[in-house]
Amino acid sequence: MNVYVADACGFCYGVRRAVEMASSAASGTHTLGPIIHNPQVVARLAERGVSPVDSLESLREGDTILIRSHGVGPDVYREAEKKRLNVVDATCPHVKKAQQDAKKIIEKEKNLIIIGEKAHPEVISISQWGANRAIILDREEMARALPPMEQAGVVVQTTFSQEQFKRIEQILADKIPDLTVYMTICTATQQRQQAAIDLAGKMDVMIVIGGKNSANTGRLAQVCREQGCPTYHIETAAELDTAWFKGMKNIGITAGASTPDWIIQEVVNIMENLQAEATEVMSEELLDKY
Ligand code: F3S
């Protein structure tokens, strides 16, 4: 049995930075919402006294609030200032750029179009920087249904699919004479998906590690299955079932952008032990044979 790990997997730059900032924050620090979609990381931070809150309401002067990588709208910064809170800003720089681009578009009195999922916290934050005046869409038919307009500026959710973006951009370019596109897609998601596709195409089975509620991990599992590769989405090594690998030769491992290295390593270690056992059994079988 051979075990391979995808070339690009696990924490992206923005998530790693946010988790490191949370890990080095003082006990008593709060994060505005769970820092990432990974319950094990959230639990570890809670043990160190860093826990999530839903809003700033319960916080008092001098308390510290950490803003996660998805970012927040300007109202949150204003409220934090008013309450005299200490702000640790872990907004991913790529998200920050998209927020600032949205602000710029509105300041130039242009129509603002955000290509992204309406309910995603990052898109909500970008929209808030655009004075809540954005038209938000994520499907081609939504772009086709737009009313006629002379000009618009476009910002894209950082994790949006490149292909889908290109299709929507083409429709907008055909409809809107004065269109400025701020390409704010971040390559981390794309790289993880491409590495998973490349690996799944050559494997007998894939293990995808990441939170069950993590959209990007779910998408990784989906692209592996689309390659026709049997795929198991697990959150931790404890969910591994040796029966999955019976008679399998090549096992691939990948992980979502919110999966920490220690969880990936645990899975790799178990798989390597299985690999060693399988080699031993094989040698014993060969000895019996000859
Ligand atoms: Fe930032 Fe890209 Fe990750 S936008 S949070 S580095 S997926």
Q: Which secondary structure elements does this structure contain, and how are they paired or packed?
A:
Elements (H helix, E strand, L loop, with lengths): L1 E4 L7 H11 L6 E3 L6 H9 L3 E3 L10 E4 L6 H9 L3 E4 L3 H15 L3 E5 L5 H9 L5 E3 L2 H5 L6 E6 L5 H14 L2 E5 L4 H14 L4 E5 L5 H12 L4 E4 L15 E6 L5 H29 L1
Parallel strand pairs: 1-12, 2-3, 2-4, 4-5, 6-7, 6-8, 8-9, 10-11, 10-12
Helix pairs in contact: 4-5, 8-9
Radius of gyration: 22 Å
Q: Give the count of helical stretches.
A: 10
Q: Unreliable stretches, pLDDT < 50, 5 or more residues?
A: none
State the CATH topology of the largest domain: Cobalt-precorrin-4 Transmethylase, domain 1
Largest sheet: 4 strands, parallel
Number of strands: 12
The small-molecule ligands in this entry are: FE3-S4 cluster
Helix and strand composition category = alpha/beta
Helix content: 40-55%
Instruction: Give the overall average pLDDT.
Output: 93
H/E series: EHEHEEHEHEHEHEHEHEHEEH
CATH architecture of the largest domain: 3-Layer(aba) Sandwich
Give the domain tally: 3
Strand content: 15-25%
CATH superfamily of the largest domain: 4-hydroxy-3-methylbut-2-enyl diphosphate reductase, catalytic domain
Overall body shape: flat
Calculate the terminal CA-CA distance, rounded to whole Å.
Answer: 21 Å
CATH class of the largest domain: Alpha Beta
Strand order of the largest sheet: 1-12-10-11
Organism: Megasphaera hexanoica
Binding site for [4Fe-4S] cluster: 12, 92, 186
Family: Belongs to the IspH family.
Active site: 122
